[in-house]
Amino acid sequence: MIEEKIREALKKVIDPELGVSIVDLGLIYDVRYEAGEAEIEMTLTSPGCPLAPVIDKKVREAIKEVPEVKNVTVELVWDPPWSTGAMSEELRAELGID
User: Does residue 93 belong to any structural domain of this protein?
Assistant: First the structure.
């Protein structure tokens, strides 16, 4: 499934402040793919994140690794707001977050 390939590519995108994958952080809310077009719905850890342009660029670069994707749209959303509950279980355990 192409969406899974996209998610795998996005796992390589590391949040520059926290040093962990944006997928494990739970920043990726949705991945849609149809006929060469990928749509990524994501958030950031805070609306005022100064690294938003850097993360956006890295997301677009990572998706270029998926040959089926010809065009990508990245939509930043703030609802629902990100929380540590969105992190993967593995990352929460690693950081000692219940």
Answer: no
